[in-house]
Amino acid sequence: MRRLRVITRADKETRLPSRPTSLAHRHVVSLHDLAPAEVEYLLKLGECVKAQPSRFKNALEGKSLAMLFEKPSLRTRVSFEVGMEQLGGKAIYLGPQEVGLGKRESVKDVAQNLSRWVNAVAIRTFAHQTVMEFAANASIPVINALSNFEHPCQALADYFTLLEHKGPLEGKTLAWVGDGNNVAHSLIYGAARLGVRMRIATPAGYEPDRSVVADAKREGGDITLTHDALEAVAGADAVYTDVWISMGQEDEADTRQRVFRPYQVNSELLRTAGPQVLFMHCLPARRGQEVTAEVMDSPRSIVYDQAENRLHIQKAMLLALLS
User: Which residue among 56, 90, 121, 253 is least crowded, i.e. fewest CB within 10 A of its CB?
Assistant: First the structure.
């Protein structure tokens, strides 16, 4: 596994990383679709974009992004809209009331229509199958902006943030505590590509999808599953959690509150990790549930850096796919 090199100021001012030709005009439906060199490139380009935003201000002039959202969003919508504007392009928000994806009009027809009008689509939906069907019928790049199975934009921003705070990622340990959900899946795929050790603590029955773990291990990923949160976080470089009850799971709220209570990230749990540990969360957070306010607001917390970096890494993705 190649070690990521932190770009110096001189690097940022003189040259951009060389783009893999395989990234141009392709879909990003899953981190499993990206090779290690492609993930590494996006992280390096994200560093350049963040360090010198004015250098890219007209890079996507005349280009347009359709944001097809079945689920509401704060970070995803704002970061894509602002990112596209900062690159000189235009973003068009299409909510469920405008499109009725798969109801008012078939996924195939929406994909083929948008392919005639815009340059790319960021789709945020419930079923991962919808993203795959949309991409299969689109002739323009399609970015998975969240599905029930993966959240590749979030995971890329997370590893970018971890790189900023901890330096080269190879050999670092990321502990996931809570539900083995879509964000966990994308982080697992990313860990296998970046040489990150990942320990995942979930209640029994809430583990990540077996196929995701098997794929990551087959690709050389160091992935450990446990039901013991203390075991997962011991000596970790970062501890990550997410909400216990996601959109569409409201009818499971009482059960999930009870089952996940021992997996709350609090100061006692972080003491097991050690003084070097960082706290991560993709937000929105439910203070007092999966994480305490004390941890959220502590110096160890980098949750707002993660949120900011959604903007920079998504700009890097748009540049890689469209420029």
Answer: 253
Q: Which two tokens stand for residue 298?
A: 């502590």
Decide if 153 contacts 76 (C-beta within 8 A): yes
HSE (side-chain half, CA atoms, 13 Å) at 127? 8
Contact (Cβ atoms closer than 8 angstroms) between residue 195 and residue 211 = no
- pLDDT tens readout for residues 19-60: 999 999 999 999 999 999 999 999 999 999 999 999 999 999
> For the residues 297-315, what does the mean pLDDT come to?
98
Q: What are the chain's domains?
A: 15-151+310-322 (3.40.50.1370), 154-306 (3.40.50.1370)
Distance CA 148, CA 269 (A): 28
The Cα–Cα gap between 35 and 48 comes to: 20
List the structure tokens of 304.
């707002």
Whole-angstrom distance, CA of residue 109 vs CA of residue 70: 16
List, by residue number, the catalytic residues: 124, 151, 154, 242, 282, 310
pTM of the complete model: 0.94
Comparison of pLDDT for 252 and 11, the residue scoring more: 252
Q: How confident is the model at residue 13, as a pLDDT?
A: 56
For residue 310, the Cα-to-chain-centroid distance in whole angstroms is 8
Query: How is the chain split among helix, strand and coil, in percent rounded to 5?
Result: 50, 15, 35
**Exposure letters 200-234 (e unless 16+ CB within 10 A, then b):** bbbbeebbbbeebbebbeeeebbbebebebeebbe
- 3-class DSSP assignment, residue 290: coil
